[in-house]
Amino acid sequence: PAARAALGARAKALLAARGAVLVAHYYVEPELQDLALATGGIVADSLEMARFGRDHAAQELVVAGVRFMGESAKILSPHKTVRMPELEATCSLDLACPPDDFAAFCDAHPDRTVVVYANTSAAVKARADWMVTSSCALGIVEHLKAQGRKILWAPDRHLGRYIQQTTGADMLLWQGECIVHDEFKGLELELLKAEHPQARVLVHPESPSAVVALADVVGSTSQLLKAVTDEPTGTFIVATDNGLLHRMRQLAPQAVLMEAPTAGNGATCKSCAHCPWMAMNGLQALVDCLERQTGEIQVPEPVRGQALGCIERMLAFVA
Ligand code: 13P
Ligand code: SF4
Question: Taxonomically, which superkingdom (predicted)?
């Protein structure tokens, strides 16, 4: 513990010396979440991270999360230094959507408005009309549907299907998935729910349809957190990365929180409710990147400029 405290103090001093602000996602290590909040940074969902980084006066952003979050920050603030503790921290959705294949898919369906999830590379965003995150995807697709648009959606098939079913929009879906949320199991969740009939089930919409069908609340990480703080003595079963439980416990210490089941019959799962790429963001990696001035995100032109439009459209919509 003394060594951890010393490392935390070192990270704090380095952030202060560089005038840098830490922008962390709810899924990263509790130490990093706490450090972000203690130093004037933020712990947030992907939409709030993008907005915070854009609006903060600091000229250096340290993004603790996965690559697309650092890229979004850089696309929005090209003149700021954007650093990540671990540049190799990617996302299965981003990996499942290679830019060339995606461009061919778009070329084959020129009549469709291209809507991409935030969890994609800058090159994929450069081809999109709209970017969305899980907290605003429903509203944006409703808006497009009202305009009579047909949609090409990528890359999360579960989120796409959820939005399609909820809005009734005409959506053609790319077939990617998040390896963390894809592991949640409907049958096992139903059994857990039966054991705890008072529990409210909170589900991130990257989860499979059998899991979403059992939800009392479907929403982004911030929206799931709000469901807990709205009912701070409640009992909840949470189907998202278990990194979020740290903030839930801090803000609602009396709430009873259970992780949703990830695999049946004792079988092991690939990710067990914690993203392996988010987990690459440790305190040591943060100190190293600040000390050595490594981990800088670059998004070369013209891709940056082309990707900016779809992000700004989303931010204007939610403003
Ligand atoms: P949100 O934080 O926008 O809910 O996204 C979840 C996610 O998968 C981040 O990797
Ligand atoms: Fe990607 Fe899933 Fe990890 Fe989020 S939790 S970064 S969607 S793999």
Answer: Bacteria
Q: Are residues 240 and 254 located together in one domain of the fold? A: yes
Q: What integer pLDDT is reported at residue 268 of this predicted model?
A: 59
Give tens-digit pLDDT for 249-283: 999 999 999 999 987 545 556 568 999 999 999 99
Q: Is 272 part of a structural domain of the chain?
A: no
The residue written with tokens 């291209």 in the block is: 114
Could you tell me which of 55, 46, 1 has the C-alpha nearest to residue 24? 46
Task: Please indicate, yes or no, whether residues 17 and 84 belong to a single structural domain of this protein.
Answer: yes
30 belongs to a structural domain: yes
**Could you give the ipTM of this predicted complex?**
0.97
CA distance 167 to 148: 12
pTM recorded for the entire structure: 0.94
The reported pLDDT for the residue numbered 279 is 95
**CA-based nearest residue to 67, from 120, 8, 16:** 120
- Domain identity same for 76 and 38: yes
Predicted confidence at residue 1, as pLDDT, reads: 83
Pocket of ligand 1 (CB under 6 A): 45-47, 66, 119, 133-135, 178, 206, 220-221
Query: In which residue ranges of the chain is pLDDT below 70?
Result: 264-271
Residue ranges making up the domain that contains 103: 93-178
Residues 199 and 123 in one domain: no
What is the CATH number for 101?
3.40.50.10800
Last residue within a domain, chosen from 144, 178, 212: 178
Residue with tokens 């995807």: 137
Sequence-ordered list of residues with C-beta below 8 angstroms from that of 212, at least 6 positions apart, any chain: 158, 162, 203, 205, 218
Atom of ligand 2 nearest to the CA of 275: 3
